[in-house]
């Protein structure tokens, strides 16, 4: 993306972005764990104007049977956008983009989950985007890892997601929809904060090596901020109602 | 000696570092012992484990479980044991070694929907766990009320050396068969005792994380005994 023509001022002379944030500021993130009764684990995340609901089932029987693995459990992810999640109605059939995002989120979660303990089973993660505003893959990944922890799936670490990018020739944190459309680059990052490992890294656009380094740096910083909110969501659900033993 | 205080941990959180053994629900990352699950950390005699607060039941050898017969083939029954795996109960376990599928009627012994108290014989995960109903306190369950709680709260219900469950049983005049998989069968001659025992179990399920639970349960049992 070379940046499309637009009337929006992405960055004003005071260094304030189109939605009033500073360049190194994330949007407001809120997460609630355990919102669905019928799923084994669930989470609801609001990442700015993104609203995503995640449900986790499993470990459970694998259907179709031929997909099962006798050595380990398998992880299956489905990222889906509701027809009303965007301005123009979105066809609810899985699009090319959704298939891709499902795949990258699955691969971003796989290093974290430990499914060796559950051979011949599957863990299913369903992510439903109710409202989209740029950066849904990071938000969905963030919510999915909270929902997995809520379901009691053993994990090496939580995975936090946050994008960095470039708009109006400046390196910015947490790219929103306008900046994604009109900006110059978008670099979503999935990160395991305790293990200090990146599990998702994509780049749409062009960055110089120097800008790339900066993006990674502030992106990881953003992931660490998101991680604190994930942690709080789990603590609120499991530890809020009683004193420590 | 319980060592350090129990702490609330989430996946990825470092519990302690140094020379400790990483046991249940923990992994070693470099020098650190890290939790893999949401729960309470327990550092004890050089080993670290996490008591889970969420998650399903995984069959372990020698566990007593309560299952519901879901179907049968000519050689075995399958039982739903509230887990991601189903229990396999071989017909020879009930009929003896000279079982023959042509002369013995399996449904006469155990039909679909019957409850059984069973013990897990082999849970090596390469195939579905093998269960048995021959043994003391095992077999078909004919009467009682089935109660389902989270499998993670079973140890809390039993209490230290069975203190909690003994208290419930003696003060309500009831018998509780506890399956490690979170299924319980409560039976009592006295309907009021039965109801009170179920209430006590539900209270424990709700308040499992609270510290002075035994007192609370005791209070509840005594308050309604008039």
Secondary-structure element order of chain A, as H and E? EEEEHEHEEHEEEH
CATH fold naming of chain A:
Ribosomal Protein S5, domain 2
CATH superfamily of the largest domain in chain B: K Homology domain, type 1
- Poorly predicted runs of chain A are none
CATH class of the largest domain in chain B: Alpha Beta
Overall pLDDT of chain B: 90
Major sheet summary line of chain A: 5 strands, mixed
Helical fraction of chain A equals 25-40%
**Can you tell me the CATH architecture of chain A?**
2-Layer Sandwich
Query: How much of the polypeptide of chain A forms β-strand, as a percent range?
Result: 25-35%
Low-pLDDT runs of chain B: none
CATH homology group of chain A:
GHMP Kinase, N-terminal domain
Radius of gyration of chain B, whole Å: 20 Å
Bin the strand percentage of chain B: 25-35%
Count the helices of chain A. How many?
4
Q: Summarize the largest interface: chains and residue counts.
A: A-B, 38 and 32 residues
Q: Which CATH C-level class of chain A is it? A: Alpha Beta
